[in-house]
Amino acid sequence: MSMEIWKDSSSKLVDAHCHLHEFPDEEIERYQRYRIIAVSDDLESSLRTLKIAKKFDNVTPCIGLHPWEVGEESWEEARKILELAPRARCLGEIGLDKLFTPQTFNLQLKIFKTFLEVSREYGLPVNLHAAGAWREVYELVRKYNIEKAIFHWYSGPLDLLKEIVDNGYFITVNPTVTINRKHMRALQAVGLESLLTESDGPYKYRGFHLKPELIQKVVKVIAEVKEIEEEEVIAQVYRNLEIFLS
Fold first, then answer.
1. Which among 58, 64, 203, 238 is most buried, taking Cβ atoms within 10 Å?
2. pLDDT below 50 — which residues of the chain?
């Protein structure tokens, strides 16, 4: 399937944050009806993500070092990942985490800044993790003059959400919006033009086994909250994806 066909297919479902490297190829094959931004967690997954994107042209590859994976050996791993930047379309999953891994926050911060420097150098958009550190991540993205960013699974403060969208950045909504109050409040507050859908698959969270198959349910929830047709949600989210990747 050619990229030209995808660009003309505004009815395609969007998964703007998925760890495809954790899926076998035969399962990825079933996801041809989705436009997927595939994020990575470390060097090994970054290499696999790039390989997947060469095989499946509905996949946009991101390389990155997840803040959960940051440790004493991370500088060398980060260097090797960033050497792959010319082959990537995006940097992610990158960012900061004060909520789940506060013990490595200072090192996370240094490594995140290095990724932002490369994002700026190559003009690569970023796909961001910011649990417990929404303000810190946002301010760094602004400081480094990053033009395009996704704040994945946004459940941060609403005043910051306004700053995020006013600067042209996007947030993602995933299937957990039905049980996560902060996530739902963000959906209620954000305009459709600043929204992308995601699965964050294959993560398991409070009874959810997150996979691209659940994107249609996310669309249904968004349509209900915004009181519009599902087709309108699908079309606008697809346009938002094109803007992010342009």
1. 64
2. 1-9
